[in-house]
Amino acid sequence: MNNNTTNESLGNVHGSVTTENKTGWRKLMAFLGPAYLVSVGYMDPGNWATDIAGGSAFGYKLIWVLFVSNMIALLLQSLAARLGIVRGLDLAQASKNAYPRFVNFWLYILAQIAIVACDLAEIIGMAIGLKLLFHLPLIWGVSLTITDTVLMLYLMNKGMRKLEGFIISMIFIVGLSFLVEMFIVKPDVIEVAKGFIPGNLFKGDKISQQMLYIAIGIIGATVMPHNLYLHSSLVQTRQITRTEEGFKAAIKFNLFDTVIALNLAFFVNAAILILAASAFFRNGYFEVAEIQDAFKLLEHIFGAIAPTLFAIALIASGQSSTITGTLAGQIIMEGHINLRIEPWLRRLLTRVLAIVPAVFTILYYGEEGLGKLLILSQVVLSLQLGFAVIPLIHFTSDRKRMGKFAINFQTRALAWASAVLIVALNAKLVYEQIGDWVNGTSSPVWIYAIVVPIVIGIGVLLIYVFIRPLLFKHYDRPAFVPHGIANAITELDAITYSHIAVTIDFSKNDTECLRHAIMQGGKKAGYTLIHVVETAGARYYGGEVMDNETQIDFDNLDKYVCTLKNLGYSAQGQIGYGNPASAIAEIVKDENVDFIVMGSHGHKALKDLIFGTTVNSVRHMVNVPVLVVKPQSN
Q1: Residue range(s) occupied by CATH 1.20.1740.10 in the chain
Q2: Which residues contact 535 (CB under 8 A, 6 or more apart)?
């Protein structure tokens, strides 16, 4: 089993929740949490739209699609958790090692489109909820959703357990609201039971085609691709003993977490579909695709309590889903393309990209177009699923990398059957949709010139993603963490100082920083070398994370420390986590440092805005001199 892979996922919270020295239910409770964050994606406004559309159009007939989707989700999420636990990698990082850079770039683009589609659903849901409760125009509600970035960043800074607590409270509100509504609408229990019997989606008539479209939307809304990336990272927030017994325990308890959380999500989704079937289909309202129409009909049929609960639950689901979507976006960006930017900017970019189509739809198609846009966003999620599911199955089947924890034949067969089902349904939908476009226009040239080549290109990429791990079964490209590998240090000149801290980023600037530090303190001074793990995981999970990047950072830092000691200097290494400035300031205070040497990246104003400035922040946080070493230009 090879764990020499890539950087730590969500580094500042990696391994921040301890599970050691706990037994019984206390140990189970320590592991509970990651799947609840994942399950939020199974209860977002996009699910509402597909469930309401399915329930109002076909009654209880699509409950079986929800059930099958949930079973597939349970299987795939357990594989994602297994990958994160055993290899210490999230799905994006594993893909970065297994596929060429060019392929990873397009995998990132497709995953980013899926995240924007998901965020689009949250925007629309939040805006509709605000309108229903406070009569706020949708265009203003959509615009106001950009402010939830503040809440998200606040919760992230409070730590992983606080974030999980907020999410679980939102889930509780959603679940309680629908539990009450189930008593109000009084569904037909026998018809609900019949809804678990599978039906035929491939008859070819117009009704079956519409049912297939909504069914694929349900699958996309349930088995969300970004949740696979998210779950493989979130399980790394738990500290485990990296032994065979430690892996077994972590896999077992995370399976409990996944089963409980996703089954709760299934009951909420089933409740929404049953609510739509009982309230609308049974009363002759067969095409309620709009969430706001559902609100009005609930008010008309059942009075004021049901629609109010409906709107409150809608806002809660949208707000919680926004947070998990942002986490997934950072994991995907760091994993696939090694790009790490400030969380607030990452959040803002995603939200802006999602707001644009929502505003465009309201302005040009009116508020009634938002329901169709919601369902379309979930179909887009389903279309991206293959690019996450196929690599996940390959990675968890690899006995060389996973050792004894590679999935067995039965699990592998079920996983591949799920992948084939998803890809086949998507292929059929795309084929029929292109056919409708060709038949519905007198000049289909643009379809053949633009749409068809794009579809063919995506199909070729999917085939490559499937075939490459088979052709290069045990081949992983060299892993590169965002900050690079430690450089060798030669003999250094020295002058005197007392206790000097030197910030290290494993770049070519390190040698110059160390040289200037030695010039200040000579061999009489003590030196503390500080490196900060600043991945998304470190920002959210806390200071005890021990994923691959952290282990690599320890090793790299130890090389520097050993080199200095061999040269006759007194040196030690310190690893910080999360926000670089805060972590450096804390170490400086704890170690009683009286002089700091820091390297400057020499960023221009725009890069400082994107990547953040550490030197200026540290200057304002410490009461000791700071020497800034700017790299020499070539």
Answers
A1: 30-471
A2: 7, 8, 9, 10, 11, 12, 14, 334, 340, 482, 549
Beta bridge partners of 574: 530
Query: How far is 362 from 344, CA to CA, in rounded Å?
Result: 26
Measure Cα distances from 283 to 57, 61, 214, 418 in Å: 11, 16, 21, 35
Q: Classify strands 526-533 and 499-503 as parallel, antiparallel or unpaired.
A: parallel
Cα distance between residue 116 and residue 349, in whole Å: 10
Sequence letter at residue 211: M
pLDDT for residue 565 is more than 80: yes
Helices in 280-407 by DSSP H: which ranges? 291-302, 305-337, 343-365, 369-397, 399-402
Q: CA neighbours within 13 Å on the CB side: how many for 599?
A: 20
- State the DSSP code for 146: G
For the domain made up of 30-471, give the CATH fold. Amino acid/polyamine transporter I (1.20.1740)
Q: What is the pLDDT of residues 437-462, one digit of tens each?
A: 777 766 677 778 887 888 899 899 99
**Is 499-629 assigned to CATH 3.40.50.620?**
yes
Identify whether the C-beta of residue 102 lies closer than 8 Å to the C-beta of residue 352. no
Alpha-helix runs per DSSP H in 88-237 = 91-98, 101-134, 138-144, 148-157, 160-185, 189-194, 206-222, 225-234
pTM of this prediction exceeds 0.85: no
Q: Is residue 258 a contact partner of residue 234, using CB atoms and an 8 Å limit?
A: no
- Please tell me whether residue 599 adopts helix, strand or coil conformation: strand
> Which region among 10-14, 429-433, 521-525 has the lowest average model confidence (pLDDT)?
10-14
Q: Which tokens sit at 386? A: 């293959």
Q: Are 73 and 42 contacting, i.e. CB atoms less than 8 angstroms apart?
A: yes
Helix (H) or strand (E) holding 250: helix 244-279
* Residue that has been written with the tokens 């210490």 in this structure: 88
Task: Label residue 490 exposed, middle or buried (CB < 10 Å: 0-12, 13-18, 19+).
Answer: exposed
Listed in order, the ranges of the chain carrying CATH 3.40.50.620 are 499-629
Reading the block at residue 211, the tokens are: 């049912």
Token readout for 614 is 């550490």
Q: What angle do the packed helices 548-566 and 510-521 form, to 10 degrees? A: 40
